[in-house]
Structure formats: C-alpha cells, structure tokens
Specification:
α1 packs across α4. The strands form three sheets. An eight-stranded parallel β-sheet has the order 5-6-7-8-9-10-11-12. α8 links the parallel β7 and β8. The two termini are 21 Å apart. Helices cover 31% and strands 22% of the residues. The protein is built from eleven helices and 14 strands. The protein is an alpha/beta fold. It has two domains: 103 residues, Enolase-like, N-terminal domain (Enolase-like, domain 1, 2-Layer Sandwich), CATH 3.30.390.10; 199 residues, Alpha-Beta Barrel (TIM Barrel), CATH 3.20.20.120.
C-alpha cells in the first residue's frame, strides 16, 4: 500500500497573552502532519515551530513536505532518526507514524514504545512574565493549583518571584528564566528563589554560556531546556545541570524522547516533560512519558482560549491520558 502525507497549518487563540523573556504572543500556530495508509487509517502529529531554534512555520512545513515521497514509500520512525535532524518537523512526522502504527496494529502507542500505560498526572500551570503586581495577581488567581511555573525575565526577577510567592503561598514553584539571567545576577536571583521556596530553576543562563553553573553552589536543582535537545547534548551538561526538560519539539519526536529519558535517568538526571504552547494533539504523545518524570509541564491546552476537539481531559491541574480518538 502507498501512504499519503498531508500537512496543515492551524491557529489557536491564547487566552490573553503568553509572555516570556523573548517576547509575547496571542496565538499558537501549529503544524499538523497526517499520514494515511489508503485503508481508512490515519495518524496525526502536531508540532510548534520555534524561532529560538531557527524554525518558522514555512520552513517546518517545507521540511515535512520534503519527506512526502519517503513517507509514501514506507519510511519508518527509525528512518526519520537517520534522515532528519531533531526539531519540530521530525516531531510531527514521528508522532504521526506512531499514531498510524498504533491504529494499524491495534496496539496502544505506549506498548509500541515499550512503556507502561500512562496515568493521570499533575501538570504545572504557567504564569506569564509581567511586572510584580500583575504576576502576584495572576498567582492569586492560580493559587489553588498545586504546581506553578513562573516565567522570569532578568532585571527585577527577585521582586517578581517574591510577588508570586505572596500570591500563591502554598503552591510548589518552578521558575523558568528562558536564558535571561547573567553571570553578575545569578547568585542574587538564586538567593531570591531560595527565599521563596522554589523547587526547580529552568535554564537560567544562555545556552553556550552556562559553564558557570559547574562552578557555583546550586542550592536549588537547575534544569536544562535550551541547552539540551536530544541525547547528543547530554555530555555537555555534566556538572552543570541536575535535570533536563524533554520536549518532543526539541528532541524531534517521541522516538527520540523515550531514548533520551532512559539515558538521562541512567546518568542521574531528574526529568521534566515539557511542551511548547500547542493543543492536546501535541501533548498526547508526551503524556506517555509523564509518569516517568519528576515534573510534568504539559499545560499548553490550559493556556489556549480553545483547544481542538476531541482533546485531553483536564480536571484542574490533573491531566488524563489520551483517548484513542485523539492520538495513540
């Protein structure tokens, strides 16, 4: 049989705005790859092109379409590992092939991946970057959630994190600087996080400028995000980081993410399973790794004004495993 590849660009409005150190946006633009087998079965994969990694919607769509002939001729997920670089395009194709394989075999994707069945997980809920007053107000509104992820931006971060703690005195906190801290401010920012009872700090320094992390005291575990994409980057993290954030769009799909999780665990890293701002279709494959992680950050659909239908089922911050009519 000959398979067929379709590519679509879809836009979903964000509830309000999503702001990090690199800017703000009001919509999530995603790319969906659909691979059909000609017998009524189709698999889907969603990715979110990310400018920080040199990706645009147009470049990702073009890269996916470049592989249409290979997909039609039966290219496998293993072939993609060899023929494509990690990134959003490979993620969409990898997850689409996973979904199609599950439908063709009548087996759940987690079993195909060699994983145990996914379980209900507690996801972090992200608070966008703003001034201390607005972030305290946002924290107060989200104070009922057990785990908050706080976007920081560099100058003024001690005041921001203190304000969030005032707004949500009982929540567990993760902070994410998105590379915005500098060598001259990191120790003061670390002290502010200690004072606020922060449990994890994501990517404080720019990727490629993070050697200082091996030299200073780390009173709070430090998690690599922009500094790590796939298994090839693990060696460079030695002595600098305590945890890694696995995102399918960085790793280039669930196939690589599963292997990355296993190898990172073997090296002693804690795991976060994270996401870009996308719909439930992007979160669903990542849910297969959620119960293997120390931190789950799959709140993309919670940040949208509307999700796709059918989507994942959320109960507050609890996220349920995907049903087969969504993915896998």
């Amino acid at each position: 049989m000959t398979r067929h590849l379709d590519v679509a660009v879809e836009s979903f409005p964000i509830a309000g705005a999503f702001t990090i150190a690199r800017g703000s946006r009001t919509e999530a633009v995603v790319v969906v790859a659909t691979v059909s087998d000609g017998e009524g079965r189709a698999g889907r994969g969603e990715c979110v092109p990310y400018a920080r990694y040199g990706e645009t919607v147009e470049s990702v769509v073009a890269l996916i379409r470049d592989h249409a002939e290979a997909i039609a001729m039966g290219a496998t997920r293993a072939d993609l590992q060899v023929g494509m670089k990690p990134g959003a395009a490979r993620n969409a194709l990898d997850c689409a092939l996973f979904d199609l394989e599950a439908k063709q075999l009548g087996r759940p994707a987690f079993a195909i991946a060699g994983l145990s069945a996914p379980q209900v997980a507690t996801t972090a809920y992200t608070l966008s970057l703003g001034d201390p007053e607005s972030m305290e107000a946002a924290a107060r509104q989200a104070a009922h959630r057990p785990l908050l992820k706080v976007k920081l931006g560099g100058v003024g971060d001690p005041e921001r994190i203190a304000a969030v703690r005032r707004g949500a005195p009982d929540a567990r906190l993760i902070v994410d600087a998105n590379e915005a801290w500098r060598h001259e401010t990191i120790e003061a920012n670390l002290a502010a996080c200690v004072a606020a009872g922060v449990g994890l700090i994501e990517q404080p320094l720019p990727a490629g400028e993070d050697a200082l992390l091996a030299e200073i005291a780390r009173p709070i575990p430090i998690c690599a995000d922009e500094s790590l994409h796939d298994r090839a980057g693990l060696d460079a993290l030695s002595r600098r980081y305590d945890a890694i954030n696995i995102k399918l769009d960085k790793a280039g799909g669930l196939t690589e993410a599963v292997m990355l999780a296993h190898e990172a665990r073997a090296r002693g890293f804690s795991l976060m399973i994270g996401c870009m701002v996308g719909t439930s279709l992007a979160m669903a494959p990542a849910m297969l790794l959620a119960h293997h992680a120390d931190y789950v950050d799959l709140d993309g659909p919670l940040l949208l004004a509307r999700d796709r239908e059918p989507g994942l089922r959320f109960e507050g911050s609890l996220i349920h495993p995907p049903e087969p009519d969504l993915w896998g």
